Amino acid sequence: MMFWAHLSAFALIILGVGIVYLIVQAIRHSTKKNSLIVISVGALLFFGSLAGFFYAAPMYGGINIERSDYNTIKRATKDGKALSKLSKHSSDKQVYDGEKAGKNLCKIIKSIPETYDNHIPRSMAIDGLPASTSTNDLNLYDSQYIESLVRMSANVLSKKATPKDEGSKGQSKVYEQIMTDSGYSN
To answer: How far is CA 165 from the centre of its chain?
Structure first.
């Protein structure tokens, strides 16, 4: 992220030099071709740095998060959406997708380091997701229990992904966005 900040500052310096050079050329009544080239290079660098900022720090739920956390959340919400479709009336494809999603979401949660704050929801999600989604009897699917496991997973993910300076409000926004994207209403 610091690279993009440095590039942006460098681009603004080049842009400023180009504008000063253009003013000097206008006062001298000489050709303005070189100054326009410098200005255009500065503008291109500046817009390139803005694009880099948006790629390096995507917004999720109105909060800037790291790219790796963004990709992890996107994978988890895809799995959460598949789990939200599990019920007693699910088709065979939904059951298969839900079983696979339960295992994938469990792997994602396992990859998050255990801390004092996330110990209980993390361990419950790791223990409950594969067991609750790998049954062949549709009558045993408890959609409320699966939803609570997805909510615990979202809680663990939002705590990890939210930068410390955003605080609990930022974490709440990320959590709500994860649940909305997973297909559960808040």
So the answer is: 16
